[in-house]
Inverse folding.
C-alpha cells in the first residue's frame, strides 16, 4: 500500500481540502491519513459558515499521536492551514517526517488566496517562505497569485511566469513547481497551467499547458489538482520513473481536472444554475465538484495535455 | 444523488467511525457529509492516542452551519459521541432533521461499549433511551452488550435475544433493530447476527443469521456494518421496496462484512501478526480493516446470509 498523510481543511459538506483529496486518492489505492486543520460546515464561499479551527498545538498533538502509533508515510500533502502558527506547526511536521525518512515526497500547497485576494493573514507569507527555504519541500503548487506573493514577481506573460517559477528553484531550492491555472491578459477564454523542474545539472525545464476556460466559479479546483498530482507525481517519480515526472504528471492531471470541471458545470446548469457566485449558497452548492460521480476517471490518462517548453 | 449526514468519530489513521463509513458509502454513490465528534490520531485500541473531542455546542454549531447553507438529507447515520451532552446534541440534530423531513431515515448506532466493558460514561445510557423514546429513530444497531444495557435484558439464548429485540419495538417504538454480531455460550466458533422488524399490524418478525467466527480482534466492525446497512436498508426500504427491507439488507451486509474481515485477517497474518491485541499498536495497525482494498465489494450481493425466523 501507498501511505499518504494529508494535512488540510475538513468541510462537512462539499469538496475542498481533505474532503476533495481523500476520496480520489483512496480510489487510486492510497491509504489516506487525514489530519484536519479546520472542521467547517461548508466552504467559505457560501456566505455563511460555522465550525472550529485546530490550534497549532492541536495539530502537533495529533501528529505526536501518529508517531506514538509508529506510523510512517511515503507522501505528505499539506494545504490550507488557518493562521501563521498553524503553518509553522505544519512546517515542523514536514521537517520531522522528512528528517526521519529522506525519501518522503512533500507536496506543499501554500494556500494564501486567489485572484488578488488573501484568504489568510499576510503574516503567513514569510512562514511559507521559511518552510520553502528549509529545502525539505519536493513540490510546491501555488496558484498564480500565491506564486506572485511568494516570489515577489508579478506574472503577466510567459517571461515573468518563467522568472517566477525559476525563483522557486533558485531562492528556495524547491526542485518541482506547478501552477494549476493562470491567465494573461492576452485572451479571456484561455487559461494556462505551468510547471518547472530543477534538473540534476542545475538547469531548469519550464513548460506551459493551454486549455479553454469554463465560465463559472468552482471551489476546490486547486485542492483536487494537488491531490491528483500527489498520485501522478509519485507514480512517475518513484513507481514508474520517467525523465521529467512533473511534466507528465501535470499533463495527465489537467486532463482529469478538466473532465471533472466539465461534468460539474453541466450538472450545475441542469439544476438551473448559470454559474457559481461567491456568497450565493444555492449556486455554490450546485457548483460543488462532482467528486462522487467522477470516481471512475481519477486514474484516467487518455487525454493528457501536452507540455510546451518555454 | 443520495445525501447522507454521518455524525461520528474521525481518526486520522485507520478505520472506525466516519473514517470507516465515508469511503464505502461514497463508493456506493452517496454524498456523505461527515460531521466529526472527535478528531483522534487513531483508535483507542492502540494503547496511545492524541486528539480532541467536539463539545456539544460545537456539534450544534456545525449543524447550524449546514442549515444556514440550506442542506437537506435523505439519511442520517449517527454513531460514537463522547459524553452525554454530545449525545443529547446529536439527539437534537436528529429530532430537528426528522421534524423538517418526516421521510428521513435515521440509523442510530448507540455506541456504549463492547464485550462487557463501557467506552463512555454510564450517564449516556438514559440519554440514548430518551432519544429512542422520541420515536424518531428508524433503525437502531446496538451490539449485544449495548442491547442489554438499553433494554435491561441479558441475552444468553434465542429466547432472551427475541425478548431484547422486541423490547426496542415495544418500549421505544423503534420499527427496525439489528445486531451485527452476538454469541451464546453454545459454541465458541459460531457467531450470530440478528434483526427484528415491527410489522404494520403491530406484530414483530425476528430473525437470526449464523456464521463462523474469525479468531482475531478487529475495530470498526460495528461501524462498517452500520455504514453498509445504511446503504442497503435505504435501497430495500425506499429505492426498491421489499416486504421486510431489514432482513434482506442485513443478509447482504453480513456477506460483505465477512469478506472484509477475511481479507483483513489474511493480510494481517501475511504481515506476521497472529491476531489483533488491544493495547499492542503494531497488531492493531495490521488489523485495521482493509477498506481501500475492498472498494469493489461494498455493493456485492452474491453471498447473502439467510435469515432464520425465531
Amino acid at each position: 500500500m501507498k501511505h499518504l498523510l494529508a494535512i488540510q481543511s475538513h468541510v462537512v459538506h462539499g469538496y475542498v481540502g481533505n474532503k476533495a483529496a481523500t476520496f480520489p486518492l483512496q480510489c487510486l489505492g492510497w491509504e489516506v491519513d487525514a489530519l484536519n486543520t479546520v472542521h467547517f460546515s461548508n466552504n467559505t464561499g457560501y456566505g455563511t459558515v460555522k465550525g472550529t479551527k485546530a490550534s497549532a498545538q492541536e495539530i502537533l498533538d495529533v501528529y505526536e499521536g501518529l508517531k506514538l502509533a509508529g506510523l510512517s508515510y511515503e507522501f505528505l500533502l499539506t494545504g490550507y492551514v488557518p493562521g501563521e502558527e498553524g503553518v509553522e506547526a505544519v512546517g515542523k511536521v514536514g521537517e520531522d517526517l522528512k528528517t526521519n525518512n529522506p525519501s518522503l515526497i512533500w507536496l506543499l500547497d501554500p494556500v494564501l488566496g486567489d485572484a488578488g485576494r488573501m484568504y489568510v493573514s499576510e503574516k503567513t507569507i514569510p512562514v511559507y517562505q521559511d518552510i520553502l527555504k528549509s529545502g525539505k519541500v519536493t513540490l510546491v503548487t501555488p496558484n498564480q497569485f500565491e506564486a506572485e506573493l511568494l516570489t515577489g514577481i508579478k506574472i503577466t506573460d510567459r517571461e515573468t511566469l518563467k522568472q517566477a517559477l525559476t525563483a522557486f528553484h533558485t531562492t528556495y531550492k524547491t526542485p518541482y513547481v506547478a501552477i494549476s491555472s493562470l491567465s494573461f491578459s492576452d485572451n479571456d477564454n484561455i487559461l494556462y497551467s505551468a510547471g518547472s523542474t530543477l534538473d540534476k545539472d542545475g538547469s531548469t525545464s519550464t513548460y506551459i499547458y493551454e486549455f479553454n476556460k469554463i465560465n463559472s466559479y468552482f471551489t476546490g479546483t486547486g485542492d483536487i489538482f494537488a491531490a491528483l498530482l500527489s498520485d501522478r507525481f509519485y507514480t512517475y517519480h518513484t513507481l514508474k520513473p520517467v525523465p521529467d515526472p512533473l511534466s507528465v504528471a501535470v499533463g495527465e492531471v489537467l486532463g482529469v481536472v478538466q473532465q471533472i470541471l466539465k461534468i460539474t458545470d453541466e450538472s450545475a446548469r441542469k439544476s438551473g444554475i448559470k454559474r457559481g457566485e461567491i456568497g450565493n449558497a444555492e449556486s455554490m452548492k450546485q457548483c460543488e465538484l462532482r467528486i462522487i460521480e467522477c470516481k471512475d476517471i481519477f486514474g484516467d490518462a487518455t487525454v493528457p495535455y501536452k507540455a510546451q517548453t518555454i
